[in-house]
UniProtKB/TrEMBL annotation:
Ranges of residues in domain ABC transporter: 5-227
Keyword Nucleotide-binding: yes
Protein name: ABC transporter ATP-binding protein
InterPro entries the UniProt entry points to: AAA+_ATPase, ABC_transporter-like_ATP-bd, ABC_transporter-like_CS, P-loop_NTPase
Chain segments annotated as coiled-coil in the UniProt record: none
The entry's keywords: ATP-binding, Nucleotide-binding
Molecular function per GO: ATP binding
Entry-linked Pfam families: ABC_tran
Length: 322
């Protein structure tokens, strides 16, 4: 596979803030690559550096084998996070306007149909739903039939139905062979869409790989999450006989390493010791867990467990070793 995008040791500082603190990554032709990070991680700065809209202080970017400013604009497209078209343009006028900016543009009708806007093409932007607005905006980025499409937080602020329709659209683009680089703080989005993800925190890529590989390597083990007023020690004592570890976490307790066939043993142990609990749920590790364990940070909007961590980013354990 060809790398269509390569970044090496990108650094960018604003005052005392290192927005990019040495980012290296590569994106292969045809893949969907997701950059995950909380607000302030450096995602937008990285997208801007990769697309040549900001100059890094140091490091290099290669797009299609050349620097971003020299890359063929017909082959590239960027939908910035803060893209705010005039409200009194219709979806059709918006797409037609952007089509007019290129020497070779696709038929706006075909683009509107592709982004699912054929039925609302004469509606003013201000009267479109959040999902329709964003799809119309994606349409503006598709008028030049790009080989490499950057989408900066494409579904932020959109309702769940709109988000799912955007996901289906991105999947169609990927199926057609478009290379997609997207940023998100929605773990579900990255897990569903991305062939590979990079976990970005404080301007650094903390880990990268396929979602499943990252979860397997960093996500921790299957677990039972117990909502209880009992303290970690009481729960650890209760399950001591079952040989599971108990992780102290924020408002919850986690019995780690519990496989499905072990659930009954843990429940029985808690009941035997009279440990009362509000709820008890068995969970598999997620990408959010991987992010938390690798970076020591939570990603806003994720549904992960907030485990207290020590300096090395390892979960703080209460209770015995397995
Ligand atoms: P993200 O997109 O992940 O939310 P950003 O790339 O927007 O992160 O920002 C990364 C860090 O750099 C933040 O601390 C942000 O405040 C800072 N930053 C970004 N752009 C500027 C700028 N133009 N001037 C000053 N600080 C900036």
């Amino acid at each position: 596979m060809n790398d269509v995008l390569v970044a090496e040791d990108l650094r960018k500082t604003y005052g005392d803030t290192a927005a990019l603190a040495g980012v290296s990554l590569s994106v292969e032709e045809g893949e969907v690559f997701a950059l995950i990070g909380p607000n302030g991680a450096g995602k937008t700065t990285l997208v801007r550096a990769l697309t040549g809209t900001t100059d890094p202080d140091s490091g290099s970017v290669s797009v299609f084998g050349t620097d971003p400013q020299s890359a063929d604009p017909q082959r590239l497209a960027l939908l910035p996070q803060a893209f705010d078209p005039p409200e009194r343009l219709t979806a059709r006028e918006l797409v037609e306007y952007y089509a007019g900016l290129y020497d070779e543009a696709r038929d706006p009708e075909a683009v509107l149909a592709e982004v699912g806007m054929a039925d609302a093409d004469d509606t003013w932007y201000e009267n479109l739903s959040g999902g329709q607005r964003r799809r119309a905006c994606v349409g503006t980025a598709l008028v030049n039939d790009p080989d490499l499409l950057f989408l900066d937080e494409p579904t932020t602020g959109i309702d769940p139905a709109g988000r799912r329709s955007l996901w289906a659209l991105i999947e169609e683009l990927a199926d057609r062979g478009t290379t997609v680089f997207l940023t998100t703080h929605y773990m579900e989005e990255a897990e569903r869409l991305a062939d590979r993800v990079a976990l970005l925190a404080d301007g650094e890529v903390a880990a990268s790989g396929s979602p499943s590989a990252l979860v397997a390597e960093h996500g921790g083990r299957t677990r039972i999450v117990v909502e209880t007023d009992a303290d970690a020690g009481a729960v650890a004592d209760a399950v001591a006989g079952t040989d599971f570890e108990v992780e102290a976490s924020d408002g919850q307790l986690v019995v780690a390493g519990v496989e499905p066939e072990d659930i009954g043993d843990v429940v029985a142990a808690l009941n035997d010791r009279g440990v009362a609990y509000e709820s008890l749920a068995w969970k598999q590790p997620t990408l959010e867990d991987a992010f938390l364990r690798v970076t020591g940070k939570s990603v806003a909007g994720g549904a992960g467990i907030s485990v207290e961590t020590d300096r090395e980013g390892e979960p703080a354990f209460a209770g015995g070793e397995r």
